């Protein structure tokens, strides 16, 4: 069995495949293996937004969960959770996948375009600045809740950047 098939991230990757409707011309399969993911704040210029951020072998993607939830969907998720509690059984993965919202791809940064990764933390904010080669996107900043997360992301991104530069 290959290492990619044994990855603990297979379920996460499959969830992304099922929940993102529009990959904007680049399929998930073209991004390589998933290395790490988290919910992070991302700052570009003066704007800070929270995203689900995924680091793949070939790209970093940022997605948001669509907030459109119909009353019927809400009621079915409440009744499904209640029946699971009553009967003591976990909710089936297929029904929980249906209850999750649709994810929308908001940005993709290819690892090959990353020029530099800098720990730009200041008191009160733990952050990494990602400088790009692309003139259209000079840099963006990932904001972390704790130092170990920042260090893990920094090490993973730098390892992938050095792999691409070989």
Which ranges are low-confidence, i.e. pLDDT below 50, for 5 or more consecutive residues? 76-97
Give the biggest sheet: 7 strands, antiparallel
Alpha carbon gap, first and last residue: 27 Å
Architecture per CATH nomenclature, i.e. the level-2 architecture of the largest domain: Roll
CATH superfamily membership of the largest domain = Pleckstrin-homology domain (PH domain)/Phosphotyrosine-binding domain (PTB)
Strand content is 25-35%
Mind telling me the C-alpha Rg?
18 Å
Question: Would you kindly provide a written description of the structure presented here, covering whatever features stand out?
Answer:
The chain has 166 residues and is α+β, with helices and mostly antiparallel strands. Helix content is 32%, strand content 33%. It has helices at residues 10-19, 71-87, 93-99, 147-165; strands spanning 34-44, 47-56, 59-65, 103-110, 114-119, 126-132, 139-144. The longest helix is centred in the last third of the chain and has 19 residues, at 147-165. The two termini are 27 Å apart.
Short précis:
The protein is an alpha+beta fold and 166 residues long. The chain has helices spanning 10-19, 71-87, 93-99, 147-165; strands spanning 34-44, 47-56, 59-65, 103-110, 114-119, 126-132, 139-144. The chain has two domains: 10-66 and 101-165, PH-domain like (Roll), CATH 2.30.29.30; 70-100, no CATH class.
């Amino acid at each position: 069995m290959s290492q990619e098939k044994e990855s603990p991230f297979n379920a996460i990757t499959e969830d992304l495949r099922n929940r993102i409707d529009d990959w904007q011309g680049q399929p998930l399969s073209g991004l390589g293996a998933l290395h790490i993911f988290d919910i992070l704040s991302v700052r570009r210029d003066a704007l800070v937004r929270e995203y689900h951020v995924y680091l793949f072998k070939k790209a970093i993607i940022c997605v948001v969960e669509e907030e459109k939830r119909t009353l019927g969907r809400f009621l079915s998720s409440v009744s499904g959770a209640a029946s699971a509690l009553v009967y003591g059984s976990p909710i089936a993965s297929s029904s929980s996948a249906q209850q999750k919202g649709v994810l929308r791809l908001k940005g993709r940064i290819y690892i090959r375009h990353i020029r530099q990764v800098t720990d730009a933390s200041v008191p009160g904010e733990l952050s990494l600045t990602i400088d790009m080669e692309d003139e259209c996107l000079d840099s963006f900043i990932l904001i972390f809740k704790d130092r170990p997360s920042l260090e893990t992301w920094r090490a993973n991104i730098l390892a992938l950047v050095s792999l691409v530069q070989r």
